[in-house]
Amino acid sequence: MSDGPIPDAAVVGLLRPFVRATRPILSALRDSDPFGLRGRDGGTDGERSTRDKLLDALAAAPVPGTAAWARMDVAARQRWWIYRVGRFATGVAAIPGLGGALARTLPVGAAIGAAAQGMLLVAVAGEHDVTDEDHLVSLLAWVLFRRRPELGSGPTAAEDAAADARAAEIEGDLATGGRPTAARIGSAVWRLGRALYAVEDELDKRPHGRFYHEALGMLPVVGVLGKYLGEWSGLKRAAREAQRWLAARGLARV
Fold it and tell me: Are 28 and 122 in contact (CB under 8 A)?
């Protein structure tokens, strides 16, 4: 808990490494094409191999790196990211051990929920071709914390180096390259949650579910379902707020 209001500069200092740690993960998931699926549209040749038929079937699925994905509009991709991030974050919270000691010291809903929304905001902005760090920091500051920080001329050399070091710490094993396995990404998501939990008092400002989700979450047995539905609703509201923020600044793609 903080002893007083958290200055905007501290929020910006937290969000810069968060954005830097999040973007490589999302870029790898969005742009990787390990099987050469991009551009495959199938064919009519009955003599094609089983391997080719399998690759064509994979390419028909609407996931990043496929021809089907390339044909999707921005709204459809945004919906995909909501489900992708929501399901992955829920899995991370449910799998014992991914969070390590952090899972035993931080409330799962607050840590993973905040990290998931931050990841989703960066993903949604990316689908609108918004990758500028100051834009992303401003977007997250508004949607998650209701802040409008003055970013000025950007970070100083010392602040930039500190943000890089913190981002590498959050990325963990992902920073050293190699295939981003579920375990590596899951651990990184927990570290993203810990980074945002540094401003614990601010987390209540992020988009939440409806009042009935909160009421359901307080009941025995079904409380877990209520919290899950609340976080899912919060993700969708965060995506809508991101869309409005981008549109208000002329950054949204149609």
Answer: no
